[in-house]
Amino acid sequence: MNKISTDILVIGGGSTGTGVAWDAALRGFRVVLVEKRDLTHGTTGRYHGLLHSGGRYVVKDPQSAIECIEENRILRRTHTHCIEDTSGFFVVTPEDEGDYPDRFRAACAKTGIPCEEIPLKEAFRREPLLNPRISRVFEVPDGSADSFLATHATVQGARQAGAQILVYHEVVGLLTEGGEGDRRVTGARVRDAVSGEETVIEAAMTINASGAWAGQIAATAGIPVRVIPGKGVMVAVNHRLVNTVINRCKMPADGDILVPVHTVAIIGTTDERVTDPELLPIEPWEVQLMLDEGDKLVPGMSKARILRAWAGVRPLYQEGYAGDSRDATRALALLDHQQRDGVSGFLTITGGKWTTFRLMAQTTMDKACAQLGVERACRTADTPVPGTEQGYYWLGHRLHEVEEHHLQGDLVCECELVTRAMIEQAAQNNPTVTLDDLRRDVRLGMGPCQGGFCTFRAAGILAEGGEGRGARDEEEAAVPSATSEWEVAYMQSPKHNIGANGARRSNRRFDNPNLLLRDFLQERWRGLTPVLWGRQLKQERLDELIYLSVMNVDHLPPDDDTSPLTEFWQFDTTPGATAHKEGDEL
Amino acid sequence: MIDLLVLGAGLSGLVAALRAAEQGRRVKVIAKGMGAHHWNAGTIDVLGYLAGDEQPVEAPWTAMARLEDDHPYQLIERDAARAALTWFQTLTARCGLGYAGADGERNMLLPSPAGAWRPVFLAPAAQVGGAAGKDPMLIVGLEGMRDFYPHFIVRNLTAAGQPARAATLPWSVVSAARDRNSVQLAALLDEPAAQQRLLSALKLVAQPGERIGLPAILGLHRHTEVMAALQRELKCPVFEIPTLPPSVPGIRLTTALRHELERRGVRVEVGMEVIGFHAEGDAIQWVETATSARPLRHRAAAYLLATGGVLGGGFSSDPGGRFWETIFDLPLTVPQDRTQWFRPLFLDPQGQPAFRGGVSVDSSFQPVDADGRPVYANLWAAGGALAHADPILERSLEGIAIVTGVAAADAIVRERDFEGVRG
After folding, report:
1. Cβ contact A142:A50 at 8 Å
2. How crowded is residue A27: how many other Cβ atoms within 10 Å of its Cβ?
3. Strand, helix or coil at B260?
């Protein structure tokens, strides 16, 4: 069995865990992070993308609101290229209660959230599709964040500071020593999910940042942690109906946020307490609720083409709480297991929200330093991650680069403007087990056709492993690479990836293209079925024509369809049944 | 007034229009768009799989006996169905676009763009050379072509026991510019200079005894000449493999059928979406289409619904679980409950229930209500709109289109004659 010794072991590759790894590495600790699947596979990759100004919580939970606005300002410096500076509106619709807007404005003033009531005429000029019956509009510094890119950029920052990131490594169990009253966690035994090989990681401090799975991790050391898993359903609409984040000016409830993210708009969310973070079925009423509420912000939204629905699970935490997840606090929760359970060497960080992930990491590492008896200051607030020199993300950035460098012929995913080189580089440089990993890296298959065309192309490209790619010598010579190495911070840039052509281009050949292809089709299907009607159903039938009639992919020679890392779990094949998997997974 | 107004320009609509026109009827075709053959492989799949069977169907005519009683194929005498396919073969041969099969009984196995074997009954002559067999294949692609991956195809063909190897040619052999899809590449290969470059390049990679498989881009308008020239010069069999859509073989077929319709004086008006209709008693009086200037009314003695299913736009649906036929609001067999439309597995061998439903018809292909009575006296239906089949799942899309298109057209012609007799 392999053995690794480190200072800090972080469990969880979402925004919080990667933030902790980045923070700890910058403080000079040796760091290992383990994630059981791909980075952002959990809640981080399933949220609506709102960079909070704090306005949403300003009346209900001012402490959360203050954290949000402070972190909002910091992330705009440290993760600039992962953020679109959309600004945000809080709008008062005819349904919204009487004195809330004034309480909202007063609370913003008190907590330091910049908030300006803007003339309706200006609001409708900027957002012509807004409900004309809206009576007041407040503007706050909300933004739209790309949590996939941000997590990769954070990881890149952590790696540059020496951290080791192990994805597709799941925790088998925490390691403990000592007896009653003097127990300590000394690390964890982890298993490579691909090879099955186990490794013991010994650490001075183990940090449980596994979100909704935190209770399951802690339980392996006999420590009770009850996370309140709050399921949130989100629905993506085919068009960017608004260019500004739109919030209802009322107490936070279901379906009251509309966020423009890349080429789509996302309406969210619900908040439903669930029992299992792995099982998140989406009910028709939840989708209908999102559409009905969306109509109140942008009338007619429910008639737009709906691309996809998905659910994430908030890892809320409130000691001894038994109520609804909607009313559970959004504040971060750092569990000091030494104080709480008499177990040293182990911290659990949960609760919070994407916007405050850096603060969560800082708080955690401050506590870790205190327990380890060392004094090392947090540096994350002043250390931009790699790639920030690209400036704020803007909607046209991919199209601009594709047109400037005539890359139209290299587009593998026309919906999201993904080039062949972007796929090859991401597949070579980021651990890639499924095409879904590439989706999180470069947005493959996230557009209107939901993988209809690019699934086949990506499988073909990975099967060829560089053969049949062809040279683009002139462009290679003409475009100097921004850096000498392919960098994850640029993985979404078509232009940067031209420079990575030629010698440094990926030649990794995948030996399971059939599985990659079928797995991704299944993954897309899962998010489509809750919203398949009208034009999106027609699109889906076209995808069937392509993959059944033209490709016959249901009769390809089987690769290893039973891989537990794919979507091919045990299925109940009756209509309307929910896909479920066999066995239990940590 | 015309005799027959065909609604829809997919394969079933075009075939029915030709069949009725051949029998002297005055026919017009109106359609919103162009039908699925711009997206398919250009082959005529009659019956490739029976639900739940892993193995492909070997002999479709025999296997049809195992289909459910209300399947569209069960509404037609087997001999009439075979005759429809033979008629289609003659028709396309006359158009200069030969379609061939194994022996009139069995399916061929032809390579898909993913390297899987497709069970196909009739294929364009250019694809037939790719049938599974011991002669080794050389699959040749173009470097950087996004819709064709020779190494991927070869990987799967060899896994299935087919001797094959892959090669790629420089993109510049066919095109100077990078951003070209299959249709544009095919059009470029209509030019003799491009054909010459392709020939020279192929001579460098081909080895004796091999048959050469290329993406289906070997000419758009001069396909037959391009194929003949390549085989003559290379002195070996050359065949096409379909690509990711758009489909060059499908476009060649559409073009041929439309030329034939034109020759017979049948107008095909595309861009005409039906937005209303009027019936008196049980007879449809007219349908109305949206055009740029004003709504237009089209009157005919008989109407054929050939608008397809979900893919063709013949059906639509909403989040409330409603599923409806878009022109006449005919009764559909789809469950009016969204939770019953889909199974959790995309590639479920039983298919998705939403795609199995459609318009129920009687043995004359007239849409019927729940009691089995025709909804309108002068309305017929054919193709993808028909209930009790999932043509994409069964690989029967084109077969059902041709067989039911012919049968419906013949029923219409017969019916009008009977009316004349009845006086």
Report:
1. yes
2. 23
3. helix
Per-residue pLDDT, averaged over A134-145, amounts to 98
Q: How far is CA A66 from CA A201, A245, A495, B216, B345, in A?
A: 37, 19, 38, 61, 45
Would you call B156 and A557 a contact, using CB atoms and an 8 Å cutoff? yes
The residue ranking higher by pLDDT, B374 or A502, is B374
**Helices A435-442, A147-160: inter-axial angle, 10-degree rounding:** 90
Maximum Cα interatomic distance, chain B, rounded to a whole number of Å: 72
Q: Which of A565, A571, A535 has the alpha carbon at shortest distance from A239?
A: A535
A535 token code pair: 């034009």
Would you list the domain boundaries of chain A?
Answer: 2-43+148-228+329-382, 81-145+229-314, 396-555
Convert the pLDDT of each residue in A436-473 to its tens digit. Answer: 999 999 999 998 889 999 999 999 999 998 776 655 44
Q: pTM score, two decimals?
A: 0.94
Is the domain spanning B2-95+252-422 CATH 3.50.50.60? The answer is yes
How far is A485 from B110, CA to CA, in rounded Å? 44
Q: With H, G, I as helix, E, B as strand and everything else as coil, classify residue B404.
A: helix
Show residues of chain B in contact with A288, CB under 8 Å: 319
The contacts of residue B414 (CB under 8 Å, 6+ apart) are none
Q: Residue A454 in contact with residue A444, Cβ under 8 Å? A: yes
Phi then psi for residue B325, to 5 deg, are -85, 130
Q: ipTM value of the model?
A: 0.97
Contacts of B181 in chain A (CB under 8 A): none
**For A496-500, B162-166, B294-298, which range has the lowest pLDDT when averaged over its residues?**
A496-500
Distance from CA of A325 to the nearest CA of B (A): 27
Q: Report domain A2-43+148-228+329-382's class.
A: alpha beta
Q: Which residue of chain B has the CA closest to A518? A: B347
Q: Does A409 touch chain B (CB under 8 A)?
A: yes
For residue A307, what are the β-bridge partners? none
Cβ–Cβ under 8 Å, residues A424 and A444: no
**DSSP H or E segment with residue B256:** helix B248-263
Please name the member of A469, A513, A521 whose beta carbon is closest to the beta carbon of B152. A513
User: How many CB atoms sit inside 10 A of residue A180's CB?
Assistant: 6
Is the Cβ–Cβ distance between A88 and A53 less than 8 Å?
Answer: yes
Report yes or no: A295 at the B interface, CB cutoff 8 Å. no
Residue range A476-502: mean pLDDT, rounded: 61
CATH fourth-level superfamily of A81-145+229-314: D-Amino Acid Oxidase, subunit A, domain 2 (3.30.9.10)
Mutate to test the interface with A, among B326, B347, B397 (most CBs of A within 10 A): B347
Determine contact, residues A219/A209, Cβ cutoff 8 Å: no
User: What does the pLDDT look like over A209-226, one tens digit per residue?
Assistant: 999 999 999 999 999 999
The DSSP code sequence of B326-387 is TTT---B-S-S-GGGS--S-TT-TT--GGGT--B-B-TTS-BB-TTS-BSSTTEEE-GGGBS
Q: What is the pLDDT of residue B291?
A: 77
User: Cβ of A420 under 8 Å from any chain B Cβ?
Assistant: yes
Is a pLDDT exceeding 80 seen at residue A586? Answer: no
SS3 content of chain B, % helix, strand, coil (to 5): 35, 20, 45
Supply A131's token pair. Answer: 């409900």
Q: Which residue out of A413, A552, A553 would a mutagenesis test of the B interface target, given it has the greatest number of B Cβ atoms within 10 Å?
A: A552
Q: Where are the domains of chain B?
A: 2-95+252-422, 136-236
Please report residues of A whose CB lies closer than 8 A to that of B310. Answer: 537-538, 541
**Structure confidence by residue, pLDDT tens digits, B338-371:** 999 999 899 999 999 999 999 999 999 999 999 9
Give Cα B58 to chain centroid, integer Å: 20
Distance CA B232, CA B169 (A): 20
Q: In percent, how much of chain A has pLDDT > 90?
A: 74
Q: Return mean pLDDT, chain A.
A: 89
Q: What percent of chain A has pLDDT over 70?
A: 91
The answer to whether A196 contacts chain B (CB < 8 Å) is: no
